[in-house]
Amino acid sequence: MDLTVVAYVVYLVVSISLTVWVARTLSRNGRIFLADVLHGNEKLAEAVNHLLVVGFYLVNLGFVALYLSGDDDIADTRGIFEALSTKLGVVLLVLGVMHLGNVWVLNKIRRRGVMEREQHPPVPPQGWAAPPVAGA
After folding, report:
1. Whole-number Å distance between alpha carbons of 105 and 37
2. For 3-32, what is each residue's pLDDT tens digit?
3. Contact predicate 96/51, CB 8 Å
4. pTM here?
5. What is the b/e burial string over 28-67, where b = at least 16 CB atoms within 10 angstroms of the residue's CB?
6. Alpha-carbon dihedral of residues 16, 18, 19, 21, nearest 10 degrees?
7. Counting Cβ atoms within 10 Å, is residue 133 exposed (0-12), middle (13-18) or buried (19+)?
8. Helix axis angle, 42-66 relative to 3-37, nearest 10°?
C-alpha cells in the first residue's frame, strides 16, 4: 500500500475522532450553559445546542476534507509522521479556534441575558405616589 494513502487514512481517522470528541464535549457542557442563558427553556436550549453542534461538524469536517490532499508523495515512515504532524496540528488549531468562537458567542448571549434581567426591578411597583407640592 502506498504510504501516502496510509497517511490519509490515519489523518482522517484521527481528525474525525477529534472532531466528534470536541463536538460531544461542547454539546454536553453547552446544554447546561444554554439552559441558564435561555432562562430555563430546556426545549429551546436543546434546539440551539443541536444547531451549534451541526454547524461545528459542518465547518470542521469540511475543513478536514479540504485539507486532506497533500503536495508531496510520502516516501518513508518519517514522511508519514511529518505530514501527519502538520495536518493534525492545523486541524487541532482549527478545532481550538472553533471552540473559542463558540464560547465567545455563548458568553455574549449570556451577558445580554444578564443585562436584561438586571433592567427589571426585583419587586414590581406597589402603587403610585404623587410628587410633593412645593410650598405645602
Report:
1. 12
2. 888 888 998 999 999 999 988 988 888 888
3. no
4. 0.70
5. eebbebbbebbeeeeeebeebbeebbeebeeebbebbeeb
6. 120
7. exposed
8. 160
